[in-house]
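On clarity, I found the account of how folds are encoded harder to follow than it need be. What matters is that the chain and its backbone geometry are given together, residue for residue. I therefore recommend that a typical entry be quoted early in the introduction. An entry of this sort, consisting of the sequence and the corresponding backbone structure tokens, reads as follows:
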Amino acid sequence: MHPGAKISQGRSKGQQRIQSQNDYLRQWLPRQQSYLHHLLDREAPPEDRRCIVCEQDGVYKCQDCLGEPLYCTGCCRNQYHHNPFHWISQWNGQFFEQSCLAQAGLVIHLGHDGKQCPALADRWDLFEGDEHKDQLEPEDLPFVSGPEFQPKENTMVIIDKSGVHRLEIRCCDCPNALSPDIQMFQHGFFPASFNRPKTAFTFRVLDDFLLDNLECGTSAMNYYSKLRRMTSSMFPHLVPDRYRELMRVAQQWRQLKTMKWHGFGHRSDIPSTGELALFCPACPQPGINVLVAGDESLDDWKYTRSFVMDGNFKAEHLHPIKPFDEVWLSDGLGFMVGKNRYKMHLAEAADMVEKSSCNNHRAVNQANAARHKLESTGIGGVACARHGCFVPHSMVDFQKGERQMNMDYALCEAARHNMEGISRAVTFYDINCQYNKHFRARVDASQFLEMTQDLTIIPGIGLWHVHGHQDSCYVRYTSNFIDGIGRIDGEIMETLWARLNLISPAARGMSSPHRQECLDYQMNDSNFCKMIHMKRTLCRKYKLAMNGITESGKAFDRLDEAAPAHLKTEWSARERRAQSSRLNDPEAMDEYEINIKKGESTSIVSIDGSARNAAPSRRSVATWISTGLAIEEAQIALLIEVRRMGKRSTETQRLDIARQRDRLQGQIDGFTQSALTHLGEGFDADDDPDDLNVDILDDLDDDPADFSKTSDAWTNSPELTVIPLPSNLRVDRCRHCMAEDLIPLEMSLREGQANDTLHNLQIHLCNKAVLFRTAVRQAKSQALKTRAWSQVTSVQQAVSLHASIYTKTRKQMMKLEPGQDQLQKFKPLLREQLKISTAVGDPNARGQRNESLAWFWSVEVDLGGPDQSWNEEFYRVHWLRAKALRNRWKEEMTLVQLEMDWTCHYFSWRATQWGDRMRESLEKRLPGHACYSGRQSQMYSLLAQDAQAAFQDLQSVSIETGDE
């Protein structure tokens, strides 16, 4: 048995799983020789070698038909009358050698249902002299003879997706017959010339090439090279070279298909700007998918159009060889802007060299980096930021890099596309902190830039690029803090360039019109793919929004419930002022930032306050328990210090530890003696309670091996002594000692201890965050860095101490049988929750978009007092950011639900549009036009029905889940 089979059998006995690709390979290995044997058997003819039609002697075998049937010469000619592009091979007595249907006498007749025209004369003079003849060097000619190198007279070169064929074509010669090129076109051939064609391309090969070019980026040269190899594997260079003809005919075919898709075969007018381009079905387009009814206005935030702008420096273009001899088929009709008006704008616009006042952005500082061999150093343009669809007539060429004059024209053209009545737009651009400063002034100063004054442009920066900016740009320009935009990262255009980069190398040396048409076609296909997948995209967004609303709502509610009402009112007012002022004063958005002018908080809250709040009748017992809690804290502090000191302690350190232990032991002895008074006669001081077990949350960077101590060093250490508190005696023993009334008292004091410890944690974490912001990140020398990190280490030690105290406190509370409210309030403290907030330590750090504060920030927050200013500032920023995050998710849900409706309306509008064209075509007696219109109308109707059903099902499931 093969080893792979044993593996498969062993796995099948266990848990059933899906087989991997390697499992299938293991199963195939034993069959490999059998497959190879049967593959070679296919080379020989059947034993009787009979024609499958007439049972005469079989000569020709079809390589493209199922089962490779065998035919005689006459049957082969008759059977492949409607399949003239199958490859056949001929039996020569020893083996099958490559042949072609022309050798079998196949002739293609155009008209008369494939039969010979009754009026046919020798018209082959029509097909001579219109195209160049193939030139072969003498050394390229083979020293062999065969059917593939001996084409018959009067044959045409026909290029199909199966290869390059030579076949005889006879046109209809009736008096009312159309010209030969039109006859060929009617039968699915696109002639390379129109007077006397010698070469034709099938529609199949043109469609296949365009799809290969879209999906794989295959150039015309590589594609035709593949066809030549498919035709002759031994001598591909002898196959007629029609590479240039393929480029030209594909260009014509692309233009015809585009006009057909956009309905211009049904219209008498010619396309205008951007009309040969699809746009996003889910973006608001008044009059198409948005119908405003009642008191609703397009000024509402829900109708905000979102744009993302970017440049692509891989889409270069060389200077054309003959710019004066270029033919433009669709200048400005797709996504690339019209050349004439754009050139006039560039000639008029002032070329301002602007140095960035933010960080050194390539798009700003290298805007004038010219490359003399290139006519275009790249392209730039605009797409919708929410769905990633290119905006028609908004893509421009760069001449000297990504300059403002280029992007100004692109943005103004994008703002004119189906935006009648929309008064608000958000733009995301890598350098919007610089670009947007004087944008309106540049528009007003140009006669070629047009943008309505009613349109408010809100600048934004994508979440990836903003991290290359100054810290202040984060709150001023990221989508997290822009009202009415939902959840957008502003970086979707980076993903769109990947598809265009497939064809950029091939388009680099094309003529200017051909390059523009290729880019338009690629962008149109990108938008089409976005359109047909819009249902899936919006369903995914809906699920994310549902989860985002839940999670962000919980995070905000925790903070909101704990914050004082008067501060929340003040913070909300400051937030509204910031949002209303952001356009004229971006610095107003610094409200979402920590104000570093405030002083640090250094106060420590004493746990004695909990004892002082105890009932007067039990003050002495409360004082005794409070003393025990203080002793526990001293034990934890000493335990941490001993652990931190490790084996490398000095004599002075060991002496100091000994003094602390003596002092602590005295306190423990006194506390234990007092226990006899408070715990009653049932308590025996010599009893041995459970060993002390403290979870120490220490974040030291030292070697953990240095913390280990020998067993002798830990013997009889007072920091490990368990003191006789009710929580250490357990509830059952307290009841046995008649001290059951001490349990609620200690629980009350433990709650106060936990609150105070968490409050101290908040203060020290704030201080640590501020140290990173004001000391560590701004230290310019090694000495300053060392001093700053020393301060951070000191604060971190305080954080570790209070974290360990809280962990011990909560453990003791669990022994006192707490209620459900206490369990819900005081949760376990995890190490990762003690990290500082990036909103303070590094305001521009990646990954903080969904960041929220840990649970303990919402436990009985005390923001009062002059010494707690940093705590208030810290809490304010996180409250505002949590609120902004919650609001963005709520907006996202509203927008996704609207986009679902808009998408369905768009598909329905398209279906109605094509339905009207079908009826007009029937009235004009154009059956072909009517059939195509009906097919297009059905396609959009099915898209509308599919999307509507999916959206309704998703929303109904969400409602049922919410009810549960």
About this structure: The chain has 29 helices and 16 strands. Residues 326 and 513 are 7 Å apart (CA to CA). The first helix runs from residue 3 to 13.
